[in-house]
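Our consortium's second objective concerns turning raw sequence data into structural hypotheses that experimental partners can test. To show how far this objective has progressed, the report includes one record in full. It was chosen at random from the queue rather than selected for favorable results. The single chain below, 58 residues long, was entered without modification.
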Amino acid sequence: MAYDDMTIADVLRDPLIRQMMRADGVTLRVMEKLLRDAVFKARRHRNLEVKDLQAPCQ
């Protein structure tokens, strides 16, 4: 069984996630910003790890 990651658009359209957002009082704008910030930080963190692996050992 294959699992595909959801895109930000998929997350924002998902009925269960939308229901949870409503219950928590989270707007679409806030949720989208949260997700985009998380992607940015994950990519930055991954790039830092790759640079660490490429650095020569001393």
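The partners drew two points from this record. The longest helix spans residues 28-54. Residues 14-54 form one domain. Both points have been shared with the crystallography group to help prioritize constructs.
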